[in-house]
Write a structure and sequence with these properties.
- The protein is α+β, with helices and mostly antiparallel strands.
- The protein has two domains: about 20-115, Immunoglobulin-like (Sandwich); about 125-170, no CATH class.
- Helix content is about 30%, strand content about 25%.
- It is built from four helices and nine strands, in the order H-E-E-E-E-E-E-E-H-E-E-H-H.
- A four-stranded antiparallel beta sheet has the order 3-2-5-6, with no helix packed on it. It has a three-stranded mixed beta sheet with strand order 4-1-9, with no helix packed on it. Strands 7-8 form a two-stranded antiparallel ribbon.
- Strand 5 (about 60-65) and strand 6 form a beta hairpin.
- Helix 3 (about 140-150) packs antiparallel against helix 4 (about 160-170).
- The longest helix has 20 residues, at about 1-20.
- The termini are far apart.
Length: about 170
């Protein structure tokens, strides 16, 4: 009886590991030129080319920042909706939660970095309100969050916060 229970537990664990291993997906993040820093959800994870692997469910995303000195940064998101995974679909017919992983990432994401022009090379100010920290290249929502954080950290006054917030909201 004990051998049978041990056998059943072993088979169950192996089957679960096999099913869940099919839930991971990967994508290669590349840049031209290579060697750019890769940040995923704000955390530096490596340099391009970078192989990203995770177990997120289908149609989920993560934020990617690609930054290289002398080049304009790239701020984007990668979604797990690139390719249909037949194996996970078939497994999901037997164990329904596996259906949550029926989509994989597109195998490769390549980004061309643009050199910063001479007009953009002006020396940035150390004043956080003058877009040194609240970069004009980031989406409005992110810049507003950064501005709010500066205000919460008491690095800027309420008056500065309100005026900069208004400027960001009025941009086209």
């Amino acid at each position: 009886m004990r051998k049978r229970n041990l056998f059943l537990i072993t088979i169950t664990v192996l089957f679960s590991v096999l099913l869940m291993s099919g839930c991971s997906s990967s994508t290669m993040i590349r840049s031209n030129p290579s060697g750019a820093k890769v940040f995923i959800n704000g955390e530096q994870v490596g340099r391009t080319p970078y192989l990203h692997v995770d177990n997120r469910i289908s149609f989920m995303s993560f934020n990617v920042d690609i930054i290289k000195e002398g080049y304009e940064p790239i701020y984007t998101s990668i979604y797990r909706d690139g390719e249909f995974n037949v194996g996970n679909f078939v497994g999901g017919l037997f164990v329904w939660p596996i259906l949550l992983w029926t989509m994989d990432y597109t195998p490769t994401h390549t980004y061309d970095l643009r050199p910063i022009s001479n007009n953009d090379l002006s020396q940035p100010s150390n004043d956080p309100i003058n877009n040194n920290i609240v970069s004009p290249l980031r989406p409005k929502a992110e810049r507003l969050k950064e501005l709010k954080q500066l205000y919460d950290d008491k690095l800027i006054t309420e008056k500065d916060f309100e005026s900069q917030k208004q400027k960001i909201l009025e941009e086209n």
